[in-house]
Write a structure and sequence with these properties.
This protein is an alpha/beta fold and 499 residues long. It has three domains: 82 residues, no CATH class; 215 residues, Endonuclease Chain A (Endonuclease, Chain A), CATH 3.30.870.10; 164 residues, Endonuclease, Chain A, CATH 3.30.870. 45% of the residues lie in helices and 17% in strands. α2 crosses α4, α3 packs across α4 and α8 runs antiparallel to α13. The mean pLDDT is 88.
């Protein structure tokens, strides 16, 4: 706790100094304040016009427009600092360069693509994300974090060549300590081990010097976007991915981070409902490239990714179509959102959704309600116990317009749902790290696994039915907030892009 206080104090002092510098400069230029305000008004109007012209989602850009027009000085500065990281951040430019370089390793086998029936959902992912479809995979779905963890330990012990480890949160405890002991033993046996975690995600769990501790054991480490007093506090894009790759043969992903609440060793918000997924087959290569892409933006250590590619026997054997995909805020595609929309729009029978947060734009609201209107059984499961009360209140504000038109929303009574799952018609599903909120859909680096005709889809369906049986449907009356709460929720929506 002392470490957290010290780190937090340093960052806050840095932020306070930046604000103080701004105020001193503002006061020093007192004779020109009117001129400055005029300049910021003009700049605010120009930014607003640009947002209107370039927006991919007005639900995301509208709060920025309102803030800028109501508070030209503060709003414009906030947008230039936070909203334009993609253009101003040296780190993001390095990641973009690495992403462009890595595309040469993602080659679609056209024979495989045809085996996937080359339908519109598959074509969208392969043509607009660069991630290839594969057909020769064995997929296992784990409906609880503790079940996925047991399998992760089992596979880690088999590692012979390399282990790539990328998670948003890593926290000391049974889960991480068990993994770390295996990593240390593997390094001694000559296995290459790389660990990458997000600094904001681990702000309260790991010391700033933790990479040096890992390196003492021979474990290579990268901290994504390390917080600093001068720049880290305003960095709005985080690494929210969960990826574990072992020897290029096996990969794990899903909702779980590396902390004891994710495996129900400790209780924070009731029972923690999460999931994990294990992939063995050609699809592992997509995860390997995802990891190496981010890693080499920080440490350019690999001139050829191919040395980490495992050659699988019978590469074209059809076991269903599988595409691991990455979501990045640096391109023109809102990949996670579009994959979700494609599933909803093309469902005929049902769509079941699990999400810890429900902060959605008009495109998503319209797709969900239109599906319900045409007779699709649309069900969304959210937590019964929130982890962040303000964010939960914001999520609740989206329930009424959904329930009004036939979408069924359920609260998971035993506790907190952290799974991010879409499944439709017993034939298509996606599992990964992408929440139904602005941060996941527009700002973070994320990953998901899209599947069609894969055996484990029946296991995902079974899990969703089990969750629904433990959940309570929100009635139309319950979905309608009292007047004061409705005003509060409307104000929260203005800040939605920042939450």
């Amino acid at each position: 706790m002392l470490v957290v206080i010290i780190r937090g104090a340093i960052v806050l002092i840095g932020l306070a100094l930046q604000i103080l510098l701004f105020l001193v400069t503002y006061l020093y230029l007192g004779d020109h304040i009117t001129l400055l305000n005029v300049i910021y008004h003009i700049l605010g109007v120009l930014i607003t016009l640009w947002l209107i012209k370039e927006s991919k989602s007005y639900s995301y850009t509208l709060p920025w427009i309102v803030i800028i027009l109501l508070f030209p000085l503060v709003g414009t500065l906030l947008y230039l600092i936070i909203g334009q990281n993609k253009k101003t951040s040296k780190l993001l430019r390095k990641i973009l360069k690495s992403e462009n370089n890595s595309k040469k390793y993602l080659i679609q086998d056209e024979v495989v693509k045809k085996k996937c029936n080359n339908n519109s959902r598959i074509r969208y992912i392969t043509d607009y994300t660069s991630y290839p479809a594969t057909v020769n995979n064995d997929i296992s779905y784990y409906p609880l974090g503790e079940l996925a963890f047991k399998e992760m330990i089992k596979e880690l012990k088999k590692a012979e060549k390399f282990i790539f480890f990328e998670y948003f949160i890593v926290a000391p405890g049974k889960m991480w300590n068990s993994i770390l002991e295996i990593l240390k033993e593997k390094v001694k046996k000559g296995v290459e081990v790389r660990v990458m975690y997000d600094d904001l995600g681990c702000f309260s769990t790991l010391k700033s010097s933790y990479p040096k501790e890992l390196e003492k054991y021979g474990i290579k480490c990268v901290v994504f976007n390390k917080l600093s007093p001068l720049s880290g506090i305003i960095m709005n894009n985080r690494d929210h991915r969960k990826i574990l790759v072992i020897d290029g043969k096996v990969a794990f992903s899903g909702g779980i981070n590396i902390a004891d609440e994710y495996i129900n060793e400790i209780e924070k918000y009731g029972h923690w409902k999460d999931n994990g997924i294990k992939i063995s087959g050609s699809a592992v290569w997509n995860y390997t490239v995802m990891f190496l892409t981010i890693w080499n933006a920080f440490k350019k250590s690999d001139t050829d990714f191919e040395k980490y590619k495992h050659k699988f026997y019978k590469s074209n054997e059809y076991k269903g179509c599988v595409i691991p995909y990455g979501e990045t805020p640096l391109d023109d595609e809102v990949v996670g959102q579009n994959i979700y929309l494609n599933i909803i729009n093309q469902a005929n029978d049902y769509v079941y959704i699990c999400t810890p947060y429900l902060i959605i734009d008009t495109d998503m609201i319209n797709a969900l309600t239109l599906a319900a209107k045409r007779g699709v059984d649309v069900r969304i499961i959210i937590p019964g116990i929130p982890d962040k009360k303000i964010v939960y209140s914001l999520s609740e504000s989206y329930i009424e317009p959904l329930v009004k038109y036939g979408v069924k929303v359920y609260r998971y009574k035993p506790g907190f749902v952290h799974s991010k799952v879409f499944i439709a018609d017993d034939k298509m599903a996606t599992v990964g790290t992408i929440n139904l909120d602005y941060r996941s859909l527009y700002l973070h680096f994320e990953c998901g696994l899209y599947m069609e005709d894969v055996n484990c889809i029946k296991d995902i369906k079974k899990d969703m039915i089990d969750i629904l049986e433990k959940s309570k449907e929100v009635s139309k009356k319950e979905a309608r907030p009292p007047f004061i709460k409705a005003i509060w929720q409307a104000l929260l929506r203005l800040a939605a892009p920042l939450m």
